[in-house]
Amino acid sequence: MAETLRYHPELLFWEGRLQAGLALEVRADGTVAGASPSQEGDGAIALPHRALLPGLVNGHSHAFQRLIRGRTEYVAKGQASDDFWSWREWMYRAAGALQPEDVFVASRQAFLEMVLGGITAVGEFHYLHHNPDGTPYVDRDELAKQVLRAAKEVGLRIALLRVGYARAGFQVEENPRQRRFIDASFEPFARSVESLRAHVGDDPFVRIGAAPHSVRALPKAWLARLPELGELPLHMHVAEQPAELAACVAEHGRRPVELLSDLGLLHERFTAVHAVHLSPHEVAALRHATVCACPSTERNLGDGVVAADALLAAGARLCLGTDSHAGIDLLDEARQLESHLRLVRLRRAVLDPGEGDPSGLAARLLRIASDGGAHALGFAPSLQPNGPADFFTVDLHHPSMAGASGDSVLGAVMFGAEKGAVREVAVAGQLRVRDGHHPLEETSRSAFTALARRIFS
Ligand SMILES: [Zn+2]
Predict the structure, then answer these.
(1) Distance 323 CA to ligand 1 centre (A)
(2) How far is 434 from 275, CA to CA, in rounded Å?
(3) How many angstroms is it from 435 CA to the middle of ligand 1?
(4) Which residue intervals of 406-457 are DSSP H helices?
(5) Distance between CA atoms of 73 and 66, rounded to whole angstroms?
(6) Tell me: the pLDDT tens digits for 53-111?
(7) Annotated active-site positions, please?
């Protein structure tokens, strides 16, 4: 049997706080055995001036959208303003152009950027299924498998959330640019979820979930059949845009969360992505579910602010996603979750648990960015006995961390650490990133650059 690995950082996040003098013990199977006192020269892998923290979990990603970063930040000629719906046209342009190998290349670059920022697991909300003309690939799961291959090559865990998509919307004309997303009926969607589950088997690095796209893209008949898929993570875009609410009321006489509640879907495996536009009774209806906030995307698209304070008070869990990849920095998503609320509520430390602990708010944000995402994706929380040894380190000598000590270190990480301060990243105890670098960085960057040039030239 292989030996247990021991990592000895200057500070280890253990039992809810940063502690000195401890080594993390990792079993050969990549799980955590525990933490034990450690000192120099006792054989542990020394990580001097590092804080070691639980791996961040990205609850919501559309990896290929990384391609349109920076290309959509203007008002198109002939339009008075820009919004979600005009941004979407750009996204469709990228979505329509990708061959299977391109899906791999684009996904790999997004995943690489994630792991470089301390993300050790991702929920990929995958809606590119078919050829550009809508005909299925010989292997119906071809594109999903390209995404899984990209995650494996980079070395992070993935929950592939296979999207169901039926239509452009209620009483909305067919949009030819959506043909790659659409399944003819519930059956082929359900079959793909099942065949992907069989394909990944009991791989501890992979989960398969189902992602009914939104109330806009699915009729009630599909939503009502979701329980047939069995017990698996269920993710859905919910209440992101006012236009989506209006269409849902016109079709069903109910708001999106009301409709999902009527159908019994708001259980503990359900994750509502965005959930920006909620009335108080809808906040309460989400109390058993998870809400995945994607603050940088919600800000970029002009969606609005997730009422994380009200959702937590109601009992809902929270997690975070980088969604459209306007940026890929989950520590920044965590601080924006709090910061956006300050602008709306006109006060500070809105999400502080209120126990007078100087690290209380930072610890809560870290839990949202790690354990919250793990729960939403069906993974065990990391850095706990028998949980996965997924972690990242922050360089305490990085300029953005200078001066932090004692109780202020966790706050400095969650509110001030720049992405460049992330130096080591491990999944199942194995270092994927060493001293800020991943072995595939150059390969991935050049292939991705060539792909972007081809698509947008
Ligand atoms: Zn999304």
Answers:
(1) 5
(2) 37
(3) 32
(4) 408-416, 441-456
(5) 14
(6) 999 999 999 999 999 998 888 888 888 887 777 788 888 888 999 999 999 999 999 99
(7) 274, 323
